[in-house]
Amino acid sequence: MADTKTVVILGGSLGGLHVAHALLKKHQQYPKLRNTHFYWNIASVRAIIPGQIPDAKILRDLSEALQPYPSKMYELVIGEAISSDFTAKTVKIQLPNSEDVRKLTYDHLVLATGARYTNDTPWKANSDYQSLLTLLHDTASKVEKAKHIIVAGAGATGVEVAGELGYEYGKTKTITLLASGNHVLPGEQESFSSATENELKKLNVHVQKLARVKDVTRILDEGEEKYTVKLESGQDLDCDLYLPTQGMVPNSDYINAKHLDGKTKTVLVDEFLHVTGVPGSTVWAVGDIVSKPRAGFMITQKQAASVAKNVEAVLLQNKQPVPAKGPPVDILACAVGRGRGVGRMGSIRLPSFGVWLAKGRTLGMQMVDQYISGSVA
User: What residue stretches are annotated with the FAD/NAD(P)-binding domain (predicted)?
Assistant: First the structure.
């Protein structure tokens, strides 16, 4: 039998779990995989609405996903990557609730640690399972109590958060979405942004443009939280709950700066999704940690499939890698509440009903079982 090879996968979310399943299903006696936990963060925008999504629908134990495979094939290590040495082929993992650090040695390494928000929000998994669960519950409780909610940041996440709030509370609460520029969904065509604003207005969401946040002050008023949001224009806005959706940064602190984009801190990769500058091309990257083309679910899926095939080819079949393939066309889809949506395929606008059917109806939660079972890979 060939020598056992070790593949270390950092990150157990969309990209990491996809790669793990793809390798484990094909090569029963080779890889040992080391992961974290699985969080369907796509549905986090709806999970903050009380009673909409049970915990078990959005958070699943990774051991459930790996249980069908023989235990000798993998090892599940829960922890945080704190350093890496791509020449020595090692990574160090800080184990939870302990001062212990574990060094892992690999033949090939897959970076799938994703990104986080700098604010204390549940749009990404910024912490361990219990802390994330507590954050989701606390946010839902605050949403239920608040009379005026400000959502800051009018990118895709901000639009979806505001849409969910407007759908549920548009007639009973004040929902304000702050856009730092002239339009929501910056970077998109003006007509597409305008259509998105119209969908939000149907849900009684107030969109305030040219409203870049300068500072936020949290105040306790007779035991109740209040916020004052100061804009760069000098205007002060008062609210009961402030939900920022800007400030996403890659989880790349454990990687030497020479492998990162100096501005974005994302990982630099070539057309094969090798991390550039690594001896022997033994490190790969997928998902939100990657420098190109942008963060996105379908992009991550394609990257994970390509990396899994390339690791298999290079490590186990002694073949050359092939360039990674992305989606055939760039697609953007935003749910706007539980009844409508906006989207485009390339430059072609998609009907609201079509976006609702494809995404807004379930926010893709039916795919959680596919990731846990491995049928996605």
Answer: 6-294
Q: How far is CA 87 from the centre of its chain?
A: 29
Q: So what's the pLDDT on residue 37?
A: 63
User: Exposed, middle or buried: residue 230 (CB in 10 Å: 0-12, 13-18, 19+)?
Assistant: middle
Contacts 24+ apart (CB under 8 A), 328-331: 330/293, 331/298
Q: Which of 285, 307, 328 is the last residue of a domain?
A: 328
- The domain that holds 241 is classified in CATH as 3.50.50.60
Helix, strand, coil in percent for the chain, rounding step 5: 35, 25, 40
Nearest alpha-carbon partner for 118 in 213, 48, 220: 213
Q: Which of 219, 198, 220 is nearest to 207 (CA)?
A: 198
How do residues 217-244 score in pLDDT, each as one tens digit? 999 877 788 999 999 999 999 999 999 9
Residue 311 in contact with residue 23, Cβ under 8 Å?
A: yes
CB 149 within 8 A of CB 165: yes
Residue 324 covered by a domain: yes
Give per-residue pLDDT as tens, 294-332.
888 999 999 999 999 999 999 888 899 999 988 889 899
Given a cut of 60, is residue 21 above it in pLDDT? yes
Phi first, then psi: what are they for 72, rounded to 5°? -70, -10
Distance CA 49, CA 52 (A): 6
Q: Give the range of the structural domain holding residue 159, as residue numbers without chain letter.
A: 129-246
Same domain, 136 and 166: yes
Task: Please tell me the distance from the alpha carbon of residue 298 to that of residue 376, in angstroms, as a whole number.
Answer: 12
Cα separation, 266 vs 284, whole angstroms: 13
Nearest to 341 by CA among 328, 326, 357: 357
Q: Note the pLDDT tens digit of each residue in 171-197.
A: 999 999 999 999 999 989 999 999 999
Q: Are residues 86 and 161 in the same domain?
A: no
Please state the pTM of the whole predicted model: 0.93
In whole numbers, what is the pLDDT of the chain averaged over residues?
A: 92
Smallest CA-to-CA distance from 282 within 250, 301, 310 is with 310
| Cα–Cα distance, 113 to 298 (Å, whole number) | 17
In total, how many domains does the chain have?
Answer: 2
d(CA 283, CA 211): 41
